[in-house]
Amino acid sequence: MSAASTHPVEVPLPGGRVLHAHDTGGPGPVVLWHGGTPNTGEPPAPLLEPGVRWIGVDRPGYADSPRRPGRNVASVVGDVVAVLDHLGVERCVSVGHSGGGSHALACAALLPGRVAAALSVSGLAPYDGTPGWFEGLGPAGRASLGAAVAGRAAKEEFQAAGSGGIDFTPEDWALLEGPWGWFGPVVQAATANGDGGLVDDDLAHVRPWGFDPAGTTVPVHLLHGEADRVVPVGHAHRLAALVPGSTLRVVPGASHLSVLTEAPGALAAVLAHLA
């Protein structure tokens, strides 16, 4: 882990809403980070290196960021633009993990003049209403996303009753015992005021995203673990077929978190588009 650290940024918006963001600062290429579900926008400490600036935004409902019920995936773009403008950042790459992958793709699709390329790691594909979208999901994910498909009331009730765990593999749990134990405090901070952000993320993922990934014109890289049970690898294949010219790397034996050990190489490939 590098010695780089982040500092908080607050961006006031018209109407009184305040965006909570995170910035490592300094010169160098900029990575716009989209945390998973549920995460804050805190950039991933195990990936921080000197010479690369990371910026992340807390999505509504996480930590102290007020909820925006009814938001879709594309809603992140307005918040991102406000933060980038506030920080004077003109060009970046968009990177997300898990539930953040779709949000990274939204920025790539809708901000082609500002986002040079995108990387989605362990990310979901758009919901198409077919049983195949659930194929390969573990029991916890199937129940959680199934509740989201049933609607807001069902999802809220599901969360209130307890989420029923998570479909990590032994390799995922082992990863959390090392530097990627970073996830623990980030998840705790994200859910300190409840599960509102998680609920709204899951609802957004099973409704129209607000943009068409097939219209993306910047390079898109996809990284996925073959053994992922939280977001099955079939989602990566769906995205690769949907996004023109996208590059997919499937890592044999890797799962939802353990695939992050391959993230530095994928990140370097995406940053090359800023050169």
In short:
By secondary structure, this protein is of the alpha/beta class. Helices cover 31% and strands 17% of the residues.
Describe this structure in words.
This protein is of the alpha/beta class. It has one domain (7-274): Rossmann fold (3-Layer(aba) Sandwich). 31% of the residues lie in helices and 17% in strands. The protein is built from 9 helices and 8 strands. It has an 8-stranded mixed β-sheet, sandwiched between helices. Strand 7, helix 8 (233-242) and strand 8 form a beta-alpha-beta unit. Helix 3 (139-150) crosses helix 4. 50% of the residues are buried. The mean pLDDT is 96.
Q: Main sheet, how many strands, which sense, barrel?
A: 8 strands, mixed
- What is the straight-line distance between the termini? 25 Å
Structural class from helices and strands? alpha/beta
Number of domains: 1
Helical residues, percent? 25-40%
Percent strand: 15-25%
Q: How would you name the CATH homologous superfamily?
A: Alpha/Beta hydrolase fold, catalytic domain
Overall shape: it is globular
For the largest beta sheet, what order do the strands appear in spatially? 1-2-4-3-5-6-7-8
CATH architecture label name: 3-Layer(aba) Sandwich
Radius of gyration: 17 Å
CATH class: Alpha Beta
CATH topology: Rossmann fold
The secondary-structure element order is EEEEHEHEHHHHHEHEH
Helix run count? 9
Low-pLDDT runs of 5+ residues are: none
Number of strands: 8
Mean pLDDT figure: 96
InterPro entries: AB_hydrolase (IPR050471), AB_hydrolase_1 (IPR000073), AB_hydrolase_fold (IPR029058)
Organism: Kineococcus radiotolerans (strain ATCC BAA-149 / DSM 14245 / SRS30216)
Keywords: Hydrolase
Protein name: Alpha/beta hydrolase fold
